[in-house]
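=== RUN LOG ===
request id: a7f3
mode: sequence -> structure
chains: 1
length: 452
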Amino acid sequence: MNQVKLSKLVEQVQDSIMSRLDNQYYWVSAHISGVKKYENVRRCYLTLTEYENNIKSAEMKAVFWTTGYDEITKFEKLTGQQFKDGIEVVCRVMVRFNKVFGLNVEVFEISVAHTIGAIELQKKQTIERLVKEGSAIITEGVYKTKNNQLPLPAVIKNIALITAPNSDGERDFIQEITKNRHGYKFNIERYLTTIQGENAHKMILEQLKRVENGGVSRYNSQAKLERIGGFDAVAIVRGGGSDSDLKTFDDYELAKYVANFPIPVFTGIGHDRNQSIVDLMAREQKTPTKVAAIFVEHNFATENKLIDLCTKLFGLVNHKIQKAKDKLETLKPNIFKQAEREIRVEKLKLTVLRAGTFRAVDGQVKRSFIKFTDLKSGVYRTAEGIIKKSKDNLWALGKIVKLSDPQTILNRGFAIVTFNDKAVTDSTEVEGGVEIQARLKNGIIYSTVIRK
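=== RESULT ===
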């Protein structure tokens, strides 16, 4: 029996493999598993596996040495996909054989384009599924859902904030909305959770379910927790992060829940370049600061509408008062003219009656005098009634005039903005940089227009 050392046999195997495959690169497609990263020494070990009809058909150990380790970081940054077990990659490898560690491949490069294509395909399939199931419709390139078509309340007061605890997103949102230049007050209920990571989509979904069943609460003067109303809007925010974290918001179940959520959802997850599927299903504002700003500006627009309506109301009241005054002035001379006309008619009747006998005249005079007296009393009563009614109307109108007095309006918290001693009713009447005056209850504030 011929014996040979194991090392000799391994050398022959090595020579055979290297003579055929040495220094040759191959692009291979495989699923990865057993990923073990060692950041401190910049090394990663893994297994490449191929399946046919869900049956393993090939497997080989692989390694990233220092020269190829940066490919993992590049892959995660550009694809938004974590390099972990279960994903499929296309990579450039070279076959290596070590007499102690055996056969493996060294990975030099990962095809980012292949992975991005697979991710985009999955994203496209998810969107198509949402459209097919009726969670969204697309009109002129815009995705419309039950949620992003919900009408906003006139005033947004109660807000559910879904974000990570002590995060930049939470801080930016709270700072922007609490320090708004109009001094508006908001009730904000925090729903804190993990906002990125492998199971983040499940946790965000759970918080949305809590929001749907909850509301804004606060402690009253008796230190008892009381509910003060449902939510007007939901804000999902995060303070930046890598592109790889965006995959959380491409989850089908989360996107579907947002698309059909009964309260308007606003997203500010910090990505200017990319749109997640959840962004498409909700109202996207890109950053937490922009979400807070849109709430403030919405309420500011409502306030302006109310001021405009108030101005129109006072204008209408003033018009009605003036018309009533004019009508009253017209009625005054008519009342006296009517009385004089009645008196002249009766006098004429008396003159005609005097041509008869003294008895007839006397009787007629008596009857006429009685009739005249009654008529005169009726005329005066009518005149007094008309005058009293006119005085009552004038008193009521005077009260309305008093309520419309500029000082009364100022006392109620309004302000009159003037420029060059003229009231400003439209922002186009002033330019940036000019000085305007705001007349308040107890004085005038001078200010300069910065923007409008």
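=== NOTES ===
Residues 37 and 82 are 12 Å apart (CA to CA).
The chain has ten helices and 18 strands.
=== END ===
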